Amino acid sequence: MIQKDAVYEAIKRMKPDMVDSDRPVTLSKQEKELVKREVFEGIKNRRVQYGQDPLPSDDKLELYVSGLVSNWMRKDKRLNGHTTYSPRRPGSRSASVVADGPDIPQEDIDRLRSAAHPGDTVVLIRHGTPHDTSAHE
Predict the structure, then answer these.
(1) Which end of the chain has fewer beta carbons closer than 10 Å to its terminal beta carbon, N or C?
(2) What is the distance between the alpha carbons of residues 75 and 82, in angstroms, rounded to a whole number?
């Protein structure tokens, strides 16, 4: 089963009258913990797809599943009241691109900068010293 459907099915079993409705599903903290536990167990037991093998440690997987559940509660129209998800602050995430080498040609620096999104930071490593070459200053 894909992860999106695993989240949906876990919530549907818990609150069948709330899924596929005009209002977003709301879960108490305890309910959300139960959903996360069910998805976590599904991944551990290979009933729910996970892109890596071997699986990460339980601590890392629990963190992943927590974000996964929150993500699909926001984005899955069956759970969010049939609304189209739109990020509140698109492009607000920061990213770093790291290159290593004694001499990085200017054309490579330019290519890294042009691949970055507005607000991203491109960090280049030259001779072991970081040089901040912010993409959009």
Answers:
(1) C
(2) 9
User: How far from the centroid of its chain's Cα atoms is residue 40's Cα?
Assistant: 16
Q: Specify the pTM.
A: 0.65
* Pairing mode of beta strands 100-101, 123-126: parallel
- The tens-digit pLDDT sequence of the chain (137 residues) is 999 999 999 999 999 999 999 999 999 999 999 999 999 999 999 999 998 889 999 999 999 999 999 999 999 999 999 998 877 766 655 555 555 555 666 776 677 666 666 666 666 655 555 555 554 44
And the tokens for 99? Answer: 């290159």
6 contacts 42 by C-beta, under 8 angstroms? yes
- Looking at residue 89, the DSSP 8-state letter turns out to be S
Q: Please give the Cα distance from 120 to 22 (Å, whole number).
A: 37
- Of 28, 7, 23, 10, residue with least CA distance to 70: 7
Where do the domains of the chain lie? 3-75, 88-137
Residue position matching structure tokens 């601590």:
59
Q: Cα angle vertex 94, ends 73, 121, to 5°?
A: 165
